[in-house]
Specification:
Shape: globular
Order of helices and strands: HHHHEEEEEHEEEHEEEE
Number of helices: 6
CATH superfamily of the largest domain: Aromatic compound dioxygenase
CATH class of the largest domain: Mainly Beta
Bound molecules: benzoic acid, fe (iii) ion
Mean pLDDT: 97
CATH architecture of the largest domain: Sandwich
Number of domains: 2
Oligomer: single chain
Strand content: 15-25%
Structural class: alpha/beta
Largest sheet: 5 strands, mixed
Length: about 260
Amino acid sequence: MQSLTVHLHDFIRDVRLTEEEWNTAIEFLTRVGHITDDKRQEFVLLSDTLGASMQTIAVNNEAYKDATEATVFGPFFVDDAPEVELGGDISFGAKGQPAWIEGTVTDTDGRPVPNARIEVWECDEDGFYDVQYDDDRTMARAHLYTDEHGEYRFWGLTPVPYPIPHDGPVGKMLAATGRSPIRAAHLHFMVTAPEHRTLVTHIFVEGDPQLEIGDSVFGVKDSLIKRFDEQPADTPTPDGRDLGDETWAKARFDIVLAPADA
Ligand code: BEZ
Ligand code: FE
């Protein structure tokens, strides 16, 4: 509290805060509070768009050897997403280009981590997560477990850029400061395994123009940008699945978990 107060006072002196600006700030925070309920967390969105979430992640997930970097959690995780078998399809009918994602989970000494729990979630090709529809659908999210070699694979969707919820005060703040609400295309992962640090991260899509423009919550790390190689229609799929005349993409994400006490 002492540090917060010192920085707050420094800020007020630095910008010579006017009483009108003080009032505007109070009104803004009041609106952030009023729109927040058990479905919508505008304070977290404010923290995300101010880069405060990423800064907190940075101080709490210090780099450890070659462990995979963490990034923002976001508001769209759901606790009880269905399980899919290895090679299963997490889209459950959500619209988008099919993407085969595979990789390994290892520790920082290169040893496979069998039975690691991998949660994955993403938006559909229209830029919406299932929970943003009002029909209780469960799509484009699931959990699965690595096999005895620490390997995993599943069908998902090629991620697309989408806007964070921007119909509230945070959206107004972004507009007032000339910022875009768009997030770079990504696929969320949360990986848990006993004795390892839980990893909350995403993979981003190499070549996505939004990576140049910027991510509205500052979540991009170069190490998390992966190739989604587009395969022409009729290219045989890794599991023999027949996609008819659809194109599909292939991506690899090898995950390295830090030890729990790192
Ligand atoms: C997301 O990636 O799902 C997300 C992250 C931060 C704010 C809004 C959405
Ligand atoms: Fe997201």
